[in-house]
Structure formats: structure tokens, C-alpha cells
Design a protein that fits this description.
This protein is α+β, with helices and mostly antiparallel strands. The chain is 40% helix and 22% strand. It has a domain of 99 residues: Trna Endonuclease, Chain: A, domain 1 (3-Layer(aba) Sandwich), CATH 3.40.1350. The chain has seven helices and seven strands, in the order αββββαβαββαααα.
């Protein structure tokens, strides 16, 4: 889980993450052996650039700020698309469900009252609940290898 901790820390520090994009809004995707789809993301531009090859030869690197990324997670969750955190070397990726990815980035920075106003009666406490700043100890330690 060290990869996940480092990724979250770097993305939070820079307020950006990096994706490969074929054209505006069309991002690179990968599938696992069970046909689950994931959008690969990187915590820095250099690692994203190093993955432009083969099927992604025509893709370009683009950044996304963390607020936009977190806002996108509900749509990906509904479409059953997860996030694949890339190590940047050897093509290895750590798959994370979109809901879990959202939870990793929300918490103290979320304005719950503003969210409730925007969403209205459809506000979902479980969806909005974030993981606190000490998520490293509580959340990551609770994960099993199968998660």
C-alpha cells in the first residue's frame, strides 16, 4: 500500500494528477482479466509521459485538478469504471474503485452544507463521507490483498 500512500500524498501536494487523453474527454483505459475497466492516472507528468507508447501512441498527457477528479468519481462509479494508479514503471497498476478513490481525497476540504444545497434531497451521506487525514493508519491497514 506504499504506492497508494505516495500517490495520494503527491497528488494532494500538487493538487493535480495526470492522465492520457486521445481527444478532449476521451481518456486511456485498461481492462483487467475480469473485463473490469479502469482509467490509469499518474501523480506526476513524467511518469504519464513515459507510458505513451503502443496503443496510446497518439495520446497526449493532460492534467486534472483534484476537485474536478473527485467530482468525476460518481459518474465513473455509476458506469462501473475504476481508477488504476500507475507506478510509471513496467506498466504495473493498482486498481481502485471510483467510490474508494473519491473517499481518499475528500474529508476536511469538503463543504458538506454546500454539497447538500447543490444535491438537495438526493444527498447521500455514504457517498459524501470522506476518509479523515489519518486515513493511512485506519483505512489502508484495513485493506486486504483482495481489496
Amino acid at each position: 500500500m506504499e504506492l497508494l500512500k505516495n500517490f495520494i500524498s503527491e497528488v494532494r501536494q500538487n493538487d493535480l494528477l495526470w492522465l492520457l487523453e486521445a481527444k478532449p474527454g476521451l481518456f486511456a483505459m485498461v481492462e483487467d482479466g475480469n473485463e473490469n475497466s479502469y482509467i490509469p492516472v499518474w501523480s506526476n507528468e513524467a511518469d504519464a509521459v513515459s507510458n505513451i507508447s503502443d496503443d496510446w501512441e497518439e495520446y497526449s498527457v493532460t492534467s486534472m485538478n483534484i476537485d474536478e477528479f473527485v467530482g468525476w468519481m460518481r459518474e465513473l462509479h455509476e458506469d462501473e469504471i475504476g481508477i488504476a494508479i500507475s507506478t510509471g514503471d513496467g506498466g504495473q497498476m493498482l486498481p481502485i474503485p471510483a467510490l474508494s478513490m473519491k473517499q481518499l481525497f475528500v474529508g476536511a476540504d469538503v463543504d458538506v452544507e454546500e454539497d447538500k444545497k447543490l444535491v438537495g434531497e438526493h444527498y447521500d451521506e455514504d457517498w459524501a463521507e470522506g476518509i479523515p487525514d489519518n486515513w493511512e493508519e485506519d483505512y489502508l491497514d484495513s485493506l486486504t490483498d483482495e481489496d
